[in-house]
Amino acid sequence: MDLQHSIFAFSMLLTIVATPAVGQAVTQPNSQNLRCMEGVYAVEEFKRDGEVFRPPQVSGRLMILNGAVFWIFHDMTQQSKQTSYAAFGRYTISETAYAYRYDDYTVYTHTDTGTSVTRQPPWEGMRQFTPVLEPDGMRLRTADAQQDFLCLLDGGLLYTFRQGDFRNYRKYRRIRSE
Would you list the DSSP string of 95-155? Predict the structure, then answer.
């Protein structure tokens, strides 16, 4: 093996040794690995009451960037009642938590009898999430465990929420990261 090939082989070995394996667990949550939340996402799946829906029955975007959160979601799973959500607000990331709130939240419901609009936010103040490291990614969970985000190893994001007896979710695929 000539010197050029030896240097190349040595540099490749250093790269392999110095680079963590894909999906390797982080030993402790911190603000740097909580940044897995940040990016622009497209809805890939929506599970409600045990049934999974995909585009074009559902569509939407979630953007979490530079302290701002934007969410648009269209639920066209029922012909007789179609619902669209539009919200924007802000978020914070610290060493030990992710939190966000909506400053503006609007729900448009279209039925055979017309369209109604509500502007009541789903909660008041910041919704706080605490990080938990798991084999499948970084999970951020509310204190009552009713909602959580899972930063997936493939870069996607899974938001789960309890609704009655069901554990529902919206699965997002990353379309842009910062």
Answer: SS-EEEEEEEEEEEEEETTEEEEE---SSSSPEEEEEEEETTEEEEE-TTSSEEEEEETTS
Mean pLDDT of 47-61: 96
What is the distance between the alpha carbons of residues 23 and 136, in angstroms, rounded to a whole number?
8
Map out the domains of the chain with their CATH numbers.
28-176 (2.40.128)
Residue 72, class by beta-carbon neighbours within 10 Å (0-12 exposed, 13-18 middle, 19+ buried)? Answer: middle
Rounded Cα distance, 70 and 63, in Å: 5
Nearest residue to 74 (alpha-carbon basis) of 102, 54, 89, 88: 54
Question: Residue 62 burial by CB count (10 A; 0-12/13-18/19+): exposed, middle or buried?
Answer: buried
3-class DSSP state for residue 49?
coil
Full-model pTM? 0.80
User: Can you tell me the distance from the alpha carbon of 108 to that of 103, in angstroms, rounded to the nearest whole number?
Assistant: 17
Short-list 84, 83, 90, CA closest to 64 = 90
Q: Are 150 and 157 in contact (CB under 8 A)?
A: yes
Find the mean pLDDT for residues 54-59: 98
Tokens, residue 119? 């502007």
